[in-house]
Structures are given as C-alpha cells and as structure tokens.
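URGENT: need a sanity check before tomorrow's submission.

F., can you look over the BMP family ABC transporter substrate-binding protein record below? I want to be sure the sequence and structure line up before it goes out.
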Amino acid sequence: MAGLGAGLASSLLWPKGARAAAGRQMTRSFAPVAEENALIAFGHTGPVTDGGWTTAHDLGVQAVRKAFPKLRSVYVESIPYSADATRIFRQFVAEGAQMVISTSNYGDFIKDVADRAPDVAFLECDGHNVTDNLGWFYITHWYASYIIGIAAGLMTKTNKLGYVGTFPIPSVYASANATLLGAQSVNPACTMSAIAINSWFDPQAATQAASALVDSGCDFLSGITDEPAYLRVAESRGVKAAMWNLGMRQFGPKAYVSSVVLDFAPFYVDQVRARLNGTWHAAPHFLTLADGVDRDAWGETVPPEIAARADEMRSKILAGYNPFRGPIRDNSGSIRVPAGVVMDDNMIYQWDWGVQGMTGLG
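Structure tokens as predicted:
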C-alpha cells in the first residue's frame, strides 16, 4: 500500500459527453469531509507499472493527488479475485477511508464490504451493482475499437485479423466484436481468429499467441492485454497491430496503427470532489468517446486516406450515430440483433457471444 496526496488545478471537470448508464440513481447523501481529513483508497487489479490498464488508472490517481494536495490517498496493487480482496477492502474501511475505488470488477468481494460500511462511498470499475453507497463506471471502448477496425479492414491483405484475448468475458467480446464489425463494414471478407491467454498480463503467453496468429495468416493483430508483447511480434514479423489502454507506438513504430486509449483522470477528480463536497451519489456511469476513451493518434505507416476514412466514422459517432445495428449474426450464423435494432451501451456492456466471422471466442 502506498500514496500521499499532492496538487493540480481543480479546473479538471467531469467530461461533458459522459453520461450515466440506464439504472437506478441512488439518493443516499454523505457528509462533506475536509480535504485535509480525507482518505481515498484505490484497489488495483495489476501493478501500476504494467504500462497498460493499471498504469492508466494510476494516472487518474496521480491527478487526484495533484487536484487535492491535502488529502491522503492509498492504493494496493495486484489485488486477487479471492477472499483476499474482501480483506483488503475491509482494511481500507478500517483505516478510515471515506471513499474506496476499485479499478476492476470485484463483484461480491467489494459489494459485501460496501453493504457493511454504509457511510463509505464505493465505486467499482466494470461493476454491475448499484446500491445506496456503491456505484460503478466503465469506458465505452467499443466505439474506438470499431474505428480502428475500419483501418484494419482497409489495411489487411489476407483479410485475416488476429486477436490476443484474455478471458471470455463481455469486455473482451465487445472489444473483439467491435474491431471485426468495423473491419467488415468496409471489407466484408474479413474474419478474426482469437486466442485467449487467460491473463491480463502474461507477456510470454501473449507473444506465443501472437506468433501463432501470424503463422496462421493474420496480418493485423489487436487485443486487450495490459502490455505490448504482441506489438513487438507484429513489428518483428512485418504485420500491423492496434493496442489497448495507452499509446504504445514506441514498442513497434512500423507495426503500430493506433490504440484504444483511456483517460480516467477527469472522472476520478470529479468523483473525489463530489465526495469531499458531500454531493456524491452512487450511480452507474459510462465514459464516452472523446470523454474518457478514444483512439490514439494514427501510426506513422497508416496511409492518410485510410485514417481519414476511419475518422469519418469517429465524427459520425461523436455526432450521435451508433454503428452497432442489426442485422448482426453470431459465429454460428444465427441472427442475434435483428434488422432495425441498435445495440445501446448497456447491451454491448453485456455482450457474451462472438459475431459472424469470429473464431476462438464462443
């Protein structure tokens, strides 16, 4: 556990485009707390030096420290998905934290603690529970993935895309499906082979998966891992790749196409400010395109005309267009989203099946 607070102008505001997801808005109020008396605790799923997911969240923690230099902040890295998580969240409460933020989905491990600490505000990334004192937030990364998928569909020569996945869970389905659907929107012949490595951070497994995908004919790699192993493979094998979490072009500048980049800082600063002011309420939140998540600047080898074609869709999405519209078939050929139906963020957030042309994810 580590962390002491430090300061940045408090002009960081809640992203204008971010919106609450459909769900029950709670009305429980929390007493204001003076900044110098405040303790904010963060529970991380990985190490803050992973260069990916946890690093992105740690940048948000650093923004909180800068915005509120008098408060204390603590964090624990690499919290397991086990009873140890419950113990750590309980310890945060015992130390006097007024707010506990988990940077991954800990389900009942955090909910059980929240239920027993009604005077503490809890916020869970990628969560699904909303109670009087527990809310959740997540990024709508599927739009950035769709945009990058358009570039993939225009750049591939084999029409075979590869995906280095982690676990068969909705966030992975949404990422892979969105990339493939974006590619198919400009190149219907595109297919995607996915390999799940059953870890968020396993460079050796990611390297092996990426090598196998390239060996099978994939000339464009994407994924959702927390480190750049498969980008290094793409660079060495002369294929293209798109990354996740942060910009990673330095690990493969010729292969790098773009990345789904995350920015939790404005949201974290806003939520902590609300807790200090006594105006925080438990609620669900989606951080939207250009307001918490976006595509990174295009790589140096992306042709300008392809970048422009993909960014036409980005502009449409920012104007309110949703590209996830039926008919959409699953990888057995059955229609899952009928014509005329648009998948909203809540539907995509629960995606648990692979689209047509996908192999390796059920």
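My own read: Residues 35-139+263-289 form a domain with the Rossmann fold fold (CATH 3.40.50.2300). The two ends are 38 Å apart (CA to CA). If you see anything odd, call me.
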